[in-house]
Amino acid sequence: MAHVPVLLKEVIDYLNPQANENFIDATVGEGGHTAAILERNKPKGKVLGIEMDLELYQKLKSCMAEFPISNFQFSNRLILVNDSYINLKKIVEKNHFKPVHGILFDLGMCSWHLEASRRGFSYLKDEPLDMRFNPKNSLTAAEIINFWDIEKIEKILKEFGEERYARRISLAIKEMRKKEKIIGTHQLVDILKRVLPKNYDKKRMHFATRTFQALRITVNNELQIIENGIKQAIKILEPGGKITVISFHSLEDRIVKNLFREKAKIKELSILTKKPISPCSEEIRNNPRSRSAKLRAAEKL
Ligand SMILES: C[S@@+](CC[C@H](N)C(=O)[O-])C[C@H]1O[C@@H](n2cnc3c(N)ncnc32)[C@H](O)[C@@H]1O
Question: pLDDT tens digit string along 262-284?
């Protein structure tokens, strides 16, 4: 499936890139938002794009020739860095990237992770239980499932998956791992199928969604770094610069909402989105994966 950036029009409306301004895409992914920014900030505006996943970063580098922005001599306008946005300040300093007029965080994983990474992000594919954005990190989903204390597994399922059957699932994992090592996604899906009620939340989501989300968040330490990354971004922005954050579940959105409010109270930010912006029904129809996206935007004072 071709990559479709989520809430693209809305992100561009809030960032409002002008000729020769500089932007940071803290989660460049497949480059959809970056491409749109580079079309707007030509001829001399730049984008610093950060991507933690080495394979995705390499893919982006190598397909630059086919990149939709190739008409605009992007090569000297797009700086790609393979790192985590947790190191945002250092990355910006190292690349002497200033002034910065806008920053985007589009949190979580890409369609590519689900469809082509072969790292077990999707419950629909039978793949190794890996789920790392950065394969240099040692913690995998299989490590958690096979070796963590059952109480700890229950806790992450509750906290990061908001899974009401966390206890039931963790006990079933305990029983299964006495018999065999759980190394593949479908082994886990089979366990979930056995212990979860039939038609569990069927209208809203697949029964494995919460467990897979909890594992991915834990493996990549996702929630712990959002606040820190956004705080660095606010410091880096020029006064009048915009910060936009797209989140995909309530745990992420809550962190962004609370941080924006805290910074608005001390007059560091002015909040531009009283309520988070969701995709319109047409976008959801064309790109069902966008349905849980929420965009918040603020301006640096
Ligand atoms: C939702 S996708 C971004 C999609 C992108 N906006 C586009 O249009 O293609 C999020 C990306 O952020 C990357 N990512 C996740 N955590 C990261 C981190 N801490 N630092 C940098 N990139 C990260 C993921 O590997 C993924 O490619």
Answer: 999 999 999 999 999 999 999 99
- Whether the per-residue pLDDT at 204 is higher than 90: the answer is no
What residues have CB less than 8 Å from 186, skipping those under 6 apart?
A: 126
Q: What is the CATH number of the domain that holds 191?
A: 1.10.150.170
- Closest approach atom of ligand 1 to CA 110: 2
Q: With a 6 A CB cut-off, is 108 part of the ligand 1 pocket?
A: yes
Nearest alpha carbon to residue 82 among 106, 50, 110, 59: 50
Query: Which residues form the domain of 153?
Result: 138-219
Distance 23 CA to ligand 1 centre (A): 16
In short, whether 14's Cβ falls inside 6 Å of ligand 1 is: no
Name residue 278's amino acid: S
Count of structural domains, the chain: 2
- Quote the tokens at residue 78: 């797009």
Judge if the beta carbon of residue 84 lies within 6 A of ligand 1: yes
57 lines ligand 1 (CB under 6 A): no
**Whole-structure pTM value:** 0.94
In a domain, 12, yes or no: yes
97-142: pLDDT as tens digits: 999 999 999 999 999 999 999 999 999 999 999 999 998 999 999 9
